[in-house]
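Consortium newsletter contribution from the modelling node. Members have asked for a concrete example of what our holo predictions look like. Here is one, prepared for the S-adenosylmethionine complex that several groups have been discussing at recent meetings.
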Amino acid sequence: MTAVLRQLKPEIARERLIRTLERKGITDTRVLDAFRKVPRHEFVDGAMYAQAYDDNALPIGLGQTISQPYIVALMTQFLELKDMRENEKILEIGTGSGFQAAILAQFSRRVYTIERHRPLGDAARKRLRRLGYENIVCKIGDGTRGWPQYAPFDKIVVTAGAPVVPEELAKQLADDGRMVIPVGTREVQSLEVYSKRNGELAKAAACDVVFVPLVGSGGWKESR
Ligand code: SAM
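And here is the predicted structure:
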């Protein structure tokens, strides 16, 4: 599916993307519905508009990307989010364009997201406000430190590749909580899913992924 928006209306291009996600193994219909509701074309640069519903990561500036839709869907599915009535507290590290945060906001009114690059974080905050997402709290800073003020979190999703699970994030995950995080080298990571029981993290590794690096006190050093 290449540059489908050139010929199709966003709603139709979105449905085609959803078929692709289903074909690739996304089975949680609530996740697919969330993709139906969030207009990805609003989260990419005007020049990328035609590719907004291709199943690809796209550049968003400062060497960063809006993640591939399939990977966003897979990470969301792995979080095993409860529905809106449960109002889980969700923390995302790596706001980027704000797209993943908008997907998470379909499941809870308590979404917290941290971005280290101010221009990206400010642009995402404005975009999310403009699109009417009032339940997403954005912050600029080093997400590897978590957000102690709002901890513990029921769910944590890290959308940049870490060398190890940052200690602070492990601490700020609630008991019975889940964390999804890519862990590995700067070049390739394994998507890891953690559940916390009685203060201990139990790990399941999912698949290989390639993310931009998580840079910060509990992540990688600034680029060499
Ligand atoms: N979730 C984003 C979206 O939906 O567009 C895509 C995230 S992009 C793959 C990874 C983001 O993580 C980048 O914007 C990057 O600047 C950010 N990042 C990297 N290290 C970070 C850190 N320590 N704290 C917060 N954000 C970080």
